[in-house]
Amino acid sequence: MSLLSGWRRGSHAADGFEFPTYRDGAGPGVVVMHESPGLTPEVVRFGRELVDEGFTVVMPHFFGSAHEAPRRMEAARVIPRICVSRDFTMVATGRTTPVAGWLRSLSRHLHAEAGGVGVGAVGMCLTGGFALAMMVDPSVVAPVVAQPAVPVPLGPRRAADVGLDAGDLATVRDRVRQGCHVLGVRYRDDWATGTRFETLTEALGEGFLRVELEGSGHATLTAERHPDAVDAVVAFLRARLLPAA
């Protein structure tokens, strides 16, 4: 049986893009964005955990397989395709992902349907910085940046870049000053995250909440999940989206 059995399949079109989506749950909305190589069983299980915590979870499917265990070397096939795709930015600095408008539209749509004070956004690895791009829209009140790996950290400039253009970074700063904190999660020695946590700390100050795990793992919430990371994300989402609780 598919791990996505019970999830309602749909799609969302906006800003020149259209991607499939999977939705389940009740309560405030959370957008969970998968990592490479795709919408893997580990990502689906994490989404299910959030459903069980009382959230409406929407998982877009951007690339790669959906719900199946990745085929051998699938990541090696997926990454080159993403690098040449106009949908995503892998190496450019000072640029917001092209799918930001689509994600913001999805967030507004989810908020309108699920209600509450706003929605959460969880990005991982290649999509880690997308949560920052999404919080430009006021509907996103609980952004989670998990092991952000884009742009690929080749050289100090790319390693420090957080995947936002200057205008969006200024808006993120303003929102943080207004009380919208950002949660960041990574393994401390994960080379793929570069020095982005230091950049975000400098830009956002105490509004950037850092959870750094010992070791050189990468996928904090999925393949190399750490219970402290999962607990921190759940607690952050509950505090931001279920304040009465």
UniProtKB/TrEMBL annotation:
One of its GO terms (molecular function) is hydrolase activity. Residues 27-145 form the Dienelactone hydrolase domain. Pfam families: DLH (PF01738). It comes from the Bacteria. This is Dienelactone hydrolase family protein. It comes from Terrabacter carboxydivorans. InterPro entries: AB_hydrolase_fold, Dienelactn_hydro. Keywords: Hydrolase. Signal peptide: none annotated. SUPFAM superfamilies: alpha/beta-Hydrolases.
